[in-house]
Amino acid sequence: MTVLPPTLSGAVYDRGYRPYAGPRGGRREATLAVWRLSMRRALGLRRSWRQKVFPWSLLAVATIPAVVFVGIAWALRQDTFELSQFLAEDFLSYREYVGVSTALLLFVALTAPDLICPDRSQRVLPLMFSRPLTGSDYVLAKVGALAAIVFGFGFLPQVVLFVGRMLVSDGALDYFTDNAEVLWQVPAAVAVLAVYYALLGIALASLTDRRIVGGVALLGVALVTSAIAGIVEGSSGGDGSALAVINVLALPLDVRDLIFLGHLGFDSALSGVEGGAVLATGAYLVVVLACVALLLHRYREVDL
Amino acid sequence: MVPPPAGLPLLRAAGLTMTYPGGTTALAGMTVEVPRGSVGLVGANGAGKTTLFRLMLGLMQPSAGWLEVTGRVVAHDPVGVRSRLGYMPEHDCLPLDQTAADVVATFGEIAGLPVRAARQRASDMLDLVGLDEARFRPIGGFSTGMRQRTKLAQALVADPELVLLDEPTAGLDPVGREEMLELVGRLAGFGISAIMATHLLDDVQRVCEHIVMIDRGHLVLTGPIDQLTQRTGVMRVEVGGREAAAEALVGALAPHGMASTLIDDGTLDIDTRDRGEEAFDIVRDATADLGLRLYSLSTRHRSLDDLFLQQAGRP
Asked: Nearest-CA residue of chain B relative to A14?
C-alpha cells in the first residue's frame, strides 16, 4: 500500500458552527434588504433570461421615441431651415414625453403583482415579519422599489432626449440655459407619475394572492375609469365636467401639467372646470393616501 | 443597543393572556419562566403554541400580562427582540423560484447582516444543514426534507440567540426526521437556544432539556425533562416457570411490606418506594425460593406520554 506523505494526503476539517460577531442593522437595513430584493426581482436580475426580457425591452420601448427624434434631428443638422422647422413642430416635448406611459402602465400591471403576490401566496411573509421589519417598512420597500424602476424608465429616455436635443442645437450651452427649467420639471413630474403608479399597482395587487388578478385589476381600473370619464366628458358638450376626475390615470398627468405649465393642459378633461387644478391635485392626493392606508392596513399584521 | 446578560432566562411570562377579537382565548393568564437551552413546547392543536410564538415575535400585543424574551420585554422593543430571534415555520414558506443560497442570504440581509456577511453565512449554514451541494438549485425542485433544512438554515443565518421551531419534523420520512432532530440537538452546542413547538413527545424527549406543556391556553406543566421523567418507584417484573407465577410472587412479597399489582399471569408491578435498592434483592430471593424463572426486572421511568395523559386528564 502506498502511503502518501502528510502534505499530500489532505485532511478533513470539521469547521463546526461559527458565531457571528460583526455588525447588525435594524429596521433601516431590513427595509433596504427588501428593497434590493424587490429591485432584483423586478429587473429580472439573478433570474432566468425570460424574466429579464420584459423589463429591459420596456426600457428600450420607452427610449425609442427619444432616439428616433434625436436621430431625425441629427440627420437634418446640415439643413438649418429643415432642422429649425422640425424642432419648432416640437413633436416630442418633455411634458408630453412624461405622459407616454402606456408601456409604463403595462410594466406596473405585470410587475407590481409579481413583487408582492408570491410573498403572500407562498407564505413568505411570516419569515419576513419575524425579522426586524414592520408592515410599514415592507410597504415602503416594495413601493419604493417599483417607484424607483418606473422613475428610472421614465427619466432615462428624457435624459436621452435632452442630451440629444442639446447636441443637435446650434449652441449646446444656449440650449442648456434656455431649457434649464426642465432639469427640475422632468424629474418632479416623472416622480409624481412613478409614485402614483407604484402605489396604485401595489395597493391593488395587495388585495389578491394571484398575480394575474392583480395585473388585471390595475388595467381594469384604468380602462373602466377612463371610459366613464370619456362618457362624462362627451356628455358635457366640451365644457368639461368635474366628474371627469374619476379617471385615475389622468390625475398624475394633470399634476404633471401643473408642474410644466402652471395650469392644466388644454387636453385635460378638467381644463374647462372651475377649480379644476385644485380638484385634480386633491384627487391625486386622495388616491395616494387611500393606497397608503390600504397597504398599511393589509400589512398591519401577519399570520404565522 | 447593549444586549442583555446571557444568563437571563430564555422566556418569562406573567399573567400572559391573549383573547382574539372574536372572543377566543388562546392563552389564559400563563405565568412561566424557562431557562436557556433546548425547550419543547408541547400541546395539542389549538393549545396556544402558535399564539405564544406570535407574542414572542412581537407580531401582536397580549390582551393582558407581560412577556420577556432573552431578557428583553417584547412590548417595549419588539423589533429588538426579533433581531436576535430565528423562526422556522411549520408550513411551506420559501420562494420556490429562487436558489437556496439566494433565499438564505436574503433572509440574512433582512435580519440586518451586511450583504457580504449574509452571503458567507448563508453558505456556512447550508453547509451545516447538509445542503452545500444543492445551494444553487431552485427550491421548487427540493424534497420536503431539503426544504425543511433550508428553513432551518434561514432561521440560523443571523446567528440568533433563540430559534423558534414550529413542528420541525412535520412531513419528514424517518430518515429526514432523524437528520432534523440531530441538527436541532446540536443547536445548544452552538450556543443557540431553541424552543421546539410540537405534539410529538418522542421528539421532545430526544432533543430537549426542558418542557413547557400547554393545554387550551393554560400552562399545565413545566420543568427539566430529566426530573419530570425520573424513576416512578415502580419495578416491573416478568416471571414464569409455572401457572400463575406472578400471583405466587405477589403473595411472597406481601410479608416484606411490598405492595404489588398484578398485570397478567407472568407480569407484576411492585411498589419499591419503601425498600429502595434492597427491593431488588428481595425480589430475586423470593423468585428463587418459589422456583420461578426471572425473565426481566426493571425500574419504570415516567414517560412524557404518561405525564401528558396524566395532565390532560386533569379537570
From this structure: B128
